[in-house]
Amino acid sequence: MVVLSKIYTRTGDAGTTALGNGTRVPKGSARVEAYGTVDEANAAIGMARLHAEGDMDARLALIQNDLFDLGADLCRPDMAKDAEAEYPPLRVAEKQVERLEAEIDAMNDALEPLRSFVLPGGSPLAAHLHLCRTVTRRAERLTVDLAAAEDVNAAAVRYLNRLSDWFFVASRIANDDGRADVLWVPGANR
Which residue ranges does the record assign to the Cobalamin adenosyltransferase-like domain (predicted)? Predict the structure, then answer.
């Protein structure tokens, strides 16, 4: 259990922060950028949840929890040392990726196939879910870049890739099962 009795520590005043293994790195490091953007995606979900109800809200709550798991995963380098760690680090599991895939498939079954690209918008919930999608795509790009240079849990990358797809399909559900999607009209303003 996490206990936070004091919020500021002054340890980051010189521009560094501690990773999950205690290593101090610059706050602008690739790893901090990756998990910081995951945190940003989580905040965007919090805004989307202001417009969500029922099952959609419950699914978004699960995703928010998953993103804390993902942040914990990304802030802990040196996966090769996981077995010898005093406390086993939390890693995103393939089961979490599979849950997203099952939810995407179930939501997509209710939708007509797309015949055009969808512009972000429609209902307030759909617009917020599109924002969640784009922030998640940025988190994915940063995590892929990180994985090119350092050890990263492959399930974490897959999770982010599926999550952005999840947000896209969920935005269509939020737009009256796609009937209120705002469709791109190529060259409409020429």
Answer: 7-173
Residue 159 forms part of a structural domain: yes
Q: Where are the alpha helices (DSSP H) in the chain?
A: 30-49, 54-74, 94-109, 124-149, 154-174
Which domain covers residue 109, as residue numbers? 27-79+88-180
Residues lower than pLDDT 50 in the chain: none
User: What integer pLDDT is reported at residue 119 of this predicted model?
Assistant: 96
CB 56 within 8 A of CB 173: yes
The distance from CA 1 to its chain's CA centroid, rounded to whole angstroms, is 23
How far is 135 from 45, CA to CA, in rounded Å? 10
Whether 188 maps to a domain, the answer reads no
DSSP 15: S
For residue 2, the model assigns a pLDDT of 67
User: Tokens 């020429």 — which residue?
Assistant: 190
CATH number at residue 98: 1.20.1200.10
Q: Quick check: is 22 in a domain?
A: no
Number of domains, the chain:
1
Q: In this structure, is residue 13 part of a structural domain? A: no
Q: Residue 95: what pLDDT?
A: 98
Residue 1 has a pLDDT of 59
For the record, the structure tokens of 77 come out as: 């380098």
Let me know: does 151 contact 79? Beta carbons within 8 Å. yes
